[in-house]
Specification:
Strand content: 5-15%
Oligomer: single chain
Largest sheet: 5 strands, mixed
Number of domains: 2
CATH class of the largest domain: Alpha Beta
Number of helices: 6
Helix content: 55-70%
Distance between the termini: 33 Å
Number of strands: 5
CATH architecture of the largest domain: 3-Layer(aba) Sandwich
Length: about 300
């Protein structure tokens, strides 16, 4: 049985760890509130861009001859963008994105397609490199507070790869933020536009078709599409970065809270073990005194 000194040392260590986890939980909670505000501000604009792009596609008589809008003859090369964090200690936040990306890569590989990896966040970049999948694009250092310029940098690389024929399809994987306790892995298609998530019917207003006919475009829808599509790719990536940031803070806050609670339970167990050790020592001392008294008599 461990001595009281050993148990006291363990209790002290666990208390120090609990202090750290509680501090990290409070920091994550403060950052989460700011991240939620940024998402709330961006979502209406992002939805408006998606809606405008979808309606412009519907109104256009033909997809304009813009390389970014040209659908490739076949899909032989797929670009997969994984949005992870720069740090760990956030539960399954990073690992579930990596698993989803790996599953998607296996699906594409089974169909004979080559995979081009792109990763945002040190965890994603380092894991891919460790597994021998060196990413074509690696973007690190901004997962705590991404800026629009970061999304533009990623979008420019993906758009260039698509236009140059290096990839025939681009998919993005990120943690969609629902609440501090709930994040869901999302897989979306960015390019080509004809297969992009932006064209999926996701609006609740089923009678919206009557309003679309009243829209007049100046210049024509084809010209508008040339300007909207790059913005759509950028804003989609930026939204994914913000959603991922909020999800990361929420996951870390939850993980640190669970760690603090587990530390408290461990302290209780160790305290009980220390009391038992103290009682055993006291009992042993009493027995020694009684034995000594009997020997003298």
């Amino acid at each position: 049985m461990a001595t009281q000194k050993d148990i006291k040392s363990r209790i002290s260590s666990v208390k120090n760890i609990r202090t750290i986890t509680r501090a990290m939980e409070m920091v994550a909670a403060a950052r989460l509130r700011r991240a939620e505000q940024r998402i709330e501000q961006l979502r209406p604009y992002a939805e408006a861009i998606r809606r405008m792009t979808r309606r412009a596609v519907e109104a256009a008589e033909s997809i304009p001859s813009l390389p970014l809008l040209e659908e490739h003859d076949s899909i032989d090369r797929v670009g997969l963008l994984l949005v992870t964090g720069d740090r760990g200690l956030a539960g399954a936040f990073n690992s579930q994105i990596l698993r989803a990306g790996t599953r998607a890569a296996s699906e594409h590989s089974d169909e004979g397609r080559n995979i081009h990896w792109y990763a945002s966040g040190r965890r994603g970049v380092s894991t891919l490199r460790f597994r021998g999948r060196d990413p074509v694009g690696a973007y690190i250092g901004f997962s705590d507070r991404p800026a629009y310029a970061n999304a533009r940098e990623i979008a420019e690389d993906l758009i260039t790869a698509y236009v140059d024929g290096e990839v025939d399809r681009v998919e993005i994987f990120y943690n969609g933020y629902i609440s501090a306790l709930s994040q869901v892995v999302r897989r979306e298609t960015l390019l080509p536009l004809q297969q992009a998530t932006v064209l999926e019917e996701e609006e609740e207003d089923g009678d919206d078709s009557g309003h679309r006919a009243l829209v007049e475009y100046e210049p024509d829808p084809e010209e508008i599409l040339k300007r909207l599509v790059p913005d759509y790719v950028e804003i989609s990536i930026y939204r994914a970065l913000l959603e991922s940031t909020a999800s990361e803070h929420g996951a870390r806050m939850t993980a640190m809270r669970n760690a603090s609670e587990n530390a408290g339970e461990l302290i209780d167990d160790l305290t009980l073990e220390m009391n038992r050790a103290r009682q055993a020592e006291i009992t042993q001392e009493i027995m020694e005194v009684v034995a000594g008294a009997e020997a003298l008599s």
